[in-house]
Amino acid sequence: MTDMTASHAALEPSRSDKFRQRTVPLILFAVVLLVIPLFNPSRSMVTLLNHMGITIVFALSYNMLLGRAGLLSFGHAVYMGLGGYFAVHVMNWIAEGTGIWGSVPMFSMPAFGFGAGALAGAVIGWPSCRRAGTPFAMISLGVAELVAAAGFMFDSLFGGEMGISGDRMNGPELFGLSLGPVDEVYWFIAFWTFIGVLGTYAFTRTPLGKLSEATRDNPERVEFVGYSPQRVRYLVFIFAGAFAGMAGGMSAVQDEIFTPENLSLIPSGAILIATYVGGIRYFTGPIMGAIVMTYMGSNLSDYTAGWLLYLGLMFVCVVMFLPDGIAGIVYGTADTIRQGRAGEMWRTWMLRLVGLALVGAAIITIVEVAFRWSDGYGEVFEPFGLQLTVENPLTWVIGILSLVLGILALRRAAKGGGK
Amino acid sequence: MTLALELKDLRKSFGPAKIIQGVNLQIEKGERHAIIGPNGAGKSTLFNLISGRFFPSSGEVKLNGEVISGKRPFEINRMGLSRSFQVSNIFTNMTVRENVRCGVLYSMGYGMSFWRNIGNLKEVSQKTAQILDEVGLLDKANLPAASLPYADQRTLEIAITIAGGAEVILLDEPTAGMSHSETDRAVALIEKASQGKTLLIVEHDMGVVFGMADRISVLVYGEIIATGTPEEIRGDAKVREAYLGEDAQALEGVA
C-alpha cells in the first residue's frame, strides 16, 4: 500500500494496450464495412452480406446468454422474431403515414426491434430466468414452441402461414438512403451491425456484464458477494432479447417479411449452431460463426441437397473435437505463431488437413452415392468425371479406405505427430 | 454491550437427522469468536444457517439486532455479513483481480449497472488493488484464478470475502490443508483483515484458534457445550471429555 496509484496503474491494462486490443479491432471492423462496397459486389453477394450482418448481431446476442452467462437457450429466435414482427408492423404504420408514424424514418427499425425484443425478454424471462441449467433450457424450448404455435394461430398479429410483409421504401429518408436498392440497404445493415457489435461488446465491459460471467462460473459465490444470480440472469436475458430484436428489425428491412417460421425452433437451432461453431468463449467467435454459417447456408445448398446433413456432421465434430470453435483455432494459431513455434506447428497442420480432406472425401462419397441410390432415379454421382455408382468398387475404395486413412492421419496429428 | 450476531435457539434438521439442536450464541461487536468441535458436529451447517445458504428449521439469527434468518444470502451479504467457504469457492475462469473486483462491486454502489464501463470505475480499481495488496496477491493479479496454487486460492477466497468491507466476517476453516508457514501467513492476514471487525471462525488448527480467538465455543452434535475465553475452554471438563484422545493432546499442546 506504499504507492497506491502506481500499483493500481500497473494492474490495469495500459492505455496503449487498451487501444490496441479494443479500439483497433473496432476501427478495423468499421473499415472493412466501409471498404466492401468498393469491390462492387454483385446484388446476390450484397444480399448475402446483409444476411451475414443480421446473423452477426443475432449470434452476438445469443452468446450473451450461452457464452457469457452460461444459459443454454433453445428458443432465441423468439426474440428476433418478435422484434422483427413489431418492426414489420411499424413499417406498415409508416406506409399508412397517419399521425406520428409519417415522420418515423425506416432507418430506425432496428431500434424498434430492440425495444420489442427487450420487452419480450422482460416478460418471458421473468419466469424462465428463475432457474439456470437444464430447467432454463427446457423452458426456453417450451416457450419457443408456444410462441411459434401462437404465431400460426393469431392471424392479425402474425399473418398466419404467409406471415406479414412490409415495404421499406416509405417514411422520411435518413443519410440520403431511400433503402430501395439492395446496396443502399447494405449501408443500413452495415451501420446497425456496427452498432450491434459495439453494443454487445460494451455490455461485456459493464459491471452487469462481468457479473454475468461470474454467475456463469459460480452462481453460489455470486450470492455471497451481494448479488442475486436470478436478477443478474434476468437482466442479461432482457439485453440478449433486445439485441436479438434489433437483428429482427434489421431483417425486417432487408427481407420485408416475417413469418411464424421465423419464431420457430429451426432458426433458434441455427443460431445455436452458428454461435457454437464460431466459438462461445471468445467475443469474436459468434461473428466468425455467423459469417461462415451464413455463407455455407446460402452456397452449400446450391451444390447438394444433403447440405443440412453436412452441417450437422460439422456441428457434432466441432462439439467433440473443437469446443472453442473457429475462434479457438484462429487465436490458438495466432498464439503459436507469436511464440515462434510456427515451424513445428505447420507439419501437424498439414497432417490434419490431409486427414480432414480424406475423411471429407469419404463421407461426401458415401452420402452422395447413398441418397442418389435411394432416390431411385438412376442418377450417378460424378465427381471429376468418375462414375461412382453403388456397384462400382471404386466407390467403396474411396468410401472406406480414405475414411480409415483419414482417421489415422487425424489421430496422429492429435498426438502431436508429423514432427 | 452491542451484539453483532445473535443466535436464538437455532435448529436445523434434514429429515429425521437433527444437525443443529438449539444453538444459542451471542457475539459482541469487534469480537473474534472461534467455533471448534469434532468432525460432523455441525460447524459448517451452522455457518450455512447464519449466512442464509440454508433456512433454519426453527429459531432465529440476528445481525446487529435485525432478524436475518429466512433472508437470501445476497440480502444478508448486503446487510454487512460476508463468509468464506471451506472448499475454495472462487470464479475459476476469471483473473485474480476480476475475482476480487466481483467482491468489491456491490459495496461500491455499482450493483448491476449496465451503463458504466467497469474499467473507468477508479474507486473500484483502487479498492481492488488495495485488497490484493493487503492479502499479498498483487503480483498474481492478472493470472487466471484456476492457475493459482492451493494456498493462494485459499487466500483469494478470503480476499473475496473481505473485499465488500463487511463488518461481520465468517471464515470456514481458512487454513485447512495449508503448511505451517502458509498457516502463519494466513493467520497474520486474518488478524489484519479482521481489525475492528467481528470475526466468526471455524477452525481445526488449535494453535490458530487459541492464539487468535477472544472467545471460543465448542460445538458437539449440534449443541454448544461450552463458550468462554481460551483459558476457560482449556480447563473445561466437558470439552476435555468431547475431545478424547488426539485432540485432547492438541489442547494440551497449546496450553
From TrEMBL, chain B:
<dbReference type="InterPro" id="IPR051120">
    <property type="entry name" value="ABC_AA/LPS_Transport"/>
</dbReference>
<dbReference type="InterPro" id="IPR027417">
    <property type="entry name" value="P-loop_NTPase"/>
</dbReference>
<keyword id="KW-0378">Hydrolase</keyword>
<dbReference type="GO" id="GO:0005886">
    <property type="term" value="C:plasma membrane"/>
</dbReference>
<dbReference type="GO" id="GO:0016887">
    <property type="term" value="F:ATP hydrolysis activity"/>
</dbReference>
<protein>
    <submittedName>
        <fullName>Putative amino-acid import ATP-binding protein YxeO</fullName>
        <ecNumber>3.6.3.-</ecNumber>
    </submittedName>
</protein>
<keyword id="KW-0067">ATP-binding</keyword>
<dbReference type="GO" id="GO:0005524">
    <property type="term" value="F:ATP binding"/>
</dbReference>
<feature type="domain" description="ABC transporter">
    <location>
        <begin position="5"/>
        <end position="246"/>
    </location>
</feature>
<dbReference type="InterPro" id="IPR003439">
    <property type="entry name" value="ABC_transporter-like_ATP-bd"/>
</dbReference>
<keyword id="KW-0547">Nucleotide-binding</keyword>
<dbReference type="Pfam" id="PF00005">
    <property type="entry name" value="ABC_tran"/>
</dbReference>
<dbReference type="InterPro" id="IPR032823">
    <property type="entry name" value="BCA_ABC_TP_C"/>
</dbReference>
<dbReference type="InterPro" id="IPR003593">
    <property type="entry name" value="AAA+_ATPase"/>
</dbReference>
<keyword id="KW-0813">Transport</keyword>
<dbReference type="Pfam" id="PF12399">
    <property type="entry name" value="BCA_ABC_TP_C"/>
</dbReference>
